[in-house]
What we know:
The chain is mainly alpha-helical. Helices cover about 60% and strands about 5% of the residues. The chain has two domains: about 5-145, no CATH class; about 160-295, no CATH class.
Amino acid sequence: MSLTMLSVALIAIAAYLIYLYFTRNFDYWKKRGVKGPKPKLIFGNFKDSITEKRNVGYLIDDIYRNYKKSEDFVGVFNANFPQLLILNPELAKQITTSDFSSFADNEASEWTKSSKDLLIRYHPFVLTGQEWKNRRSELIPSVTPAKIKSYYPNHVDATDLMLKYTGEVVCDVVFGLEAGTFKTETCDFMKVSRKLVSDFYNELGKLFISSCFPILRGVFKINFIKDDTANFYRNISKLAIESRLKGNDRNDVLQFLINMQEKNNISHDQFVGNQLMFILDGYDTTAVITAHVLLC
């Protein structure tokens, strides 16, 4: 046998042995009658995650959607290591509650056994057996909902906080003025803007009823913006325009509206109406959304 043929044979044998090594567990779930997606050499079922093409969450979501109607769980492979992926929410709940004692040890425990980093080895997440149970029973009382509330006795109303923030932003950008929403609880701009939004939604109820029963349109006098509210915005708008025309030029919505007024000769009520569009669209709505984001 020539040296070339021997080299080719050795390379083929080596390649075959490498193939056997990386596929040695690929029949693991099949032997146990567990269905699942077909793994790929070296990468298992998470090739796109390992090659950084897609986040692993999307890959798991694909598997979930493909099997959720027919299976409570499926077998997958992280490289060539078999892992069980739970698809049924009730089964997942059972594992994390009543049967958790059988699933307490996790893969992270194996990663840290030989680690010299003592701080991570003593982290409760990677502890196992009785040591984990002891640490869990000691730490859980410190993180109960009641205990956490006692750590922060002064609660922050996220919606109120975000209403102050969006109110300050809208007043600054649309009127060019400082509202002072964070400086005082009796901020006029905040009080009137809240009243504006409240009145607007109240009138929407009347509008809905009159749309369903047109005969009642003459009964309901729909007035989205009350006179006192309208006059408040007219006055601060005049104040803002006067201040801006004195030379306090800025690149904001107020300046855009002033330029539009000079170009198109719009009335002051048209001017204020455009300003109120930003309040109704960006004050309450933005505050509610950002408040929910803060609480997530």
